[in-house]
Amino acid sequence: MNRKECLSSCRLYGIVDMGYTAEHQLLPVTEKLLAGGLRILQLRAKNHNPEHIENMGLQLAPLCRKYGCLFIINDYPEIALNIGADGVHLGQDDGDLASVRGLLGKDAVIGRSTHSPEQALGACGEQADYIGFGPLFPTGTKPGRQAIGLEDIASVQQQLPENFPVFCIGGINGNTLPSVLEAGANRVVIVSWLLTHPDITGTVRTLRKELGEA
Ligand code: TZP
Ligand code: MG
After folding, report:
1. Containing domain of residue 58, as a range?
2. Which CATH number does the domain housing residue 89 bear?
3. Which of 1, 95, 127, 188 has the most C-beta neighbours closer than 10 Å?
4. Quick one: which residues bind 2-[(2R,5Z)-2-carboxy-4-methylthiazol-5(2H)-ylidene]ethyl phosphate (predicted)?
5. Atom from ligand 1 closest to the CA of residue 113
């Protein structure tokens, strides 16, 4: 399966966010996510310098490859290139995707954070391979970002090409997930709820079944 085929099969997107994971837990937590069958994982480290992130990425890349999981670097295309990650995830203010595509090549998986229907359509237009859409609910993982609620999920998906990967994000947990699915979502990113869960592996397994990935 190539990267894009793998991406289209992904329903659950996990993030190792260093705001929740102590550095000595980086590999064990990642192993727990991967043991549950996670198919796409991002490394997100907002308070670390690029050299440090590259070093962490170098440890995670082979682990993800071993489990057949796509590995995405947040914010830094050059790091993704240097360590042979599968792709990069960029926010609205992280530059244009065409130059990143030029750097990483057509096979790379490039994602964009979007916070409105306009941004979602814009990211698709600039050839993002997938989008994050949210935050649906208020979340401490992205403080200061207004929640957008559930009402635009279905219409955004209808306006995008069929099966374009829209990963809903922000405040999704065991309590909120049913309403997210009810609103029409079929792909989700879950960060803090998974990383702080006492049974990460079992929860990934259950979520993948619920989302129709497994
Ligand atoms: N972008 C929009 S919401 C969010 C990001 C990175 C954080 C999602 O984290 P959580 O803990 O699942 O709410
Ligand atoms: Mg960013």
Report:
1. 3-210
2. 3.20.20.70
3. 188
4. 139-141, 171, 191-192
5. 1
